[in-house]
């Protein structure tokens, strides 16, 4: 199987177009799931400290390396800076903690997870910190501007702790601001994107700036509905959408493969997750076929601007997408 890549700026590192998402995996299962994903053929792993399983992700990677399934240089490992660690003195500390948990000397990509600084929670008090201070029911924002956080991220590249830096969940205005002062430009923007939330104009603009794009939640409401989010339960699952099902039947493919292939056709990376080895293989096989332009256009008509991963929906006083 041929793995397709995006070449990143400014490092020229190659990032696989399809990777494995590490969020929402039970920590007790994570090491085995990551090991199996490597065995199936995944080489990019999209993790983060606030996924509550970063140590177990590292355990799975180490098991695979020990068993000779892969070498470290073949993997592209992503971690993320959580909102409570945006201050200059906390960025390096948070990165080092992630590296310690992963058991790695460096990560290939380090992302600012959300564009909001929250009051720091000491690691010995609670780690990962989550959204709120211990004992609080609402977020407490910190007075740390993004230019301070980004300068500290750039220092991680200088030190060799990370190969590339980028961000997740940044809107266009904040991205324009960051591009006006950054010394090391962002290599990647990770964002929610799926047939119900396509963000076509923004994605094209980001790519025009030489920044790669990776979509998360490629299956739209699926995982959010499973987690009990009413907003996600109120819409038709992408796998049951008649347009998606018709295209899947045309190519004798699973509906999930259609959703992933549609993203790849836009040169947007994807990071699907499954604990099933059969589904892992099916998702990865989205690389190995092409979709006709008429089918791409049919899926383009499904856009409803439906965002599911939004702090406001989750009850936090953080209207970052407004």
UniProtKB/TrEMBL annotation:
Domain of life, source organism: Eukaryota
A Pfam family it matches: Aldo_ket_red
Positions of the catalytic residues: 51
GO MF annotation: an example: oxidoreductase activity
Residue numbers marked as site, Lowers pKa of active site Tyr: 80
Residue ranges occupied by any NADP-dependent oxidoreductase domain in the UniProt entry: 23-302
UniProt xrefs under InterPro entries: AKR, Aldo/ket_reductase_CS, NAD(P)_OxRdtase_dom_sf, NADP_OxRdtase_dom
Binding site for substrate: 113
Stored PANTHER family: ALDO/KETO REDUCTASE
Protein name listed in UniProt: NADP-dependent oxidoreductase domain-containing protein
Organism: Circinella minor
Organismal lineage: Eukaryota, Fungi, Fungi incertae sedis, Mucoromycota, Mucoromycotina
């Amino acid at each position: 199987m041929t793995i397709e890549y995006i070449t990143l700026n400014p490092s020229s590192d190659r990032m696989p177009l399809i990777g494995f998402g590490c969020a929402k995996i039970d920590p007790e299962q994570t090491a085995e799931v990551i090991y199996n994903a490597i065995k199936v053929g995944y080489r990019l792993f999209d993790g983060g400290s606030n996924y509550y399983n970063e140590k177990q992700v590292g355990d799975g990677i180490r098991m695979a390396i020990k068993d000779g399934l892969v070498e470290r240089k073949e993997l592209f490992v992503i971690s993320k800076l959580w909102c409570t660690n945006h201050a200059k003195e906390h960025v390096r500390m948070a990165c080092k903690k992630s590296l310690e948990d992963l058991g790695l000397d460096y990560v290939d990509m380090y992302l600012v997870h959300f564009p909001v600084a929250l009051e720091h929670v000491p690691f010995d008090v609670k780690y990962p910190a989550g959204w709120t201070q211990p004992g609080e029911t609402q977020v407490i924002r910190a007075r740390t501007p993004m230019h301070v956080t980004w300068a500290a991220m750039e220092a991680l590249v200088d030190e060799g702790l990370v190969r590339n830096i980028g961000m997740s969940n940044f809107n266009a205005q904040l991205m324009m601001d960051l591009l006006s002062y950054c010394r090391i430009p962002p290599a990647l923007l990770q964002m929610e994107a799926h047939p119900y939330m396509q963000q076509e104009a923004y994605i094209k603009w980001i790519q025009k700036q030489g920044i790669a794009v990776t979509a998360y939640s490629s299956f739209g409401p699926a995982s959010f509905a499973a987690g009990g989010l009413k907003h996600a339960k109120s819409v038709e699952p992408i796998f049951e959408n008649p347009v998606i099902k018709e295209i899947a039947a045309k190519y004798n493919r699973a509906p999930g493969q259609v959703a992933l292939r549609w993203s790849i056709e836009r040169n947007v990376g994807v990071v699907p997750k499954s604990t099933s080895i059969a589904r892992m293989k099916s998702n990865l096989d989205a690389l190995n076929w092409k979709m006709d332009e008429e089918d791409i256009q049919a899926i383009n008509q499904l856009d409803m601007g439906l965002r599911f991963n939004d702090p406001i929906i989750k009850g936090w006083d953080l209207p970052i997408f407004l």
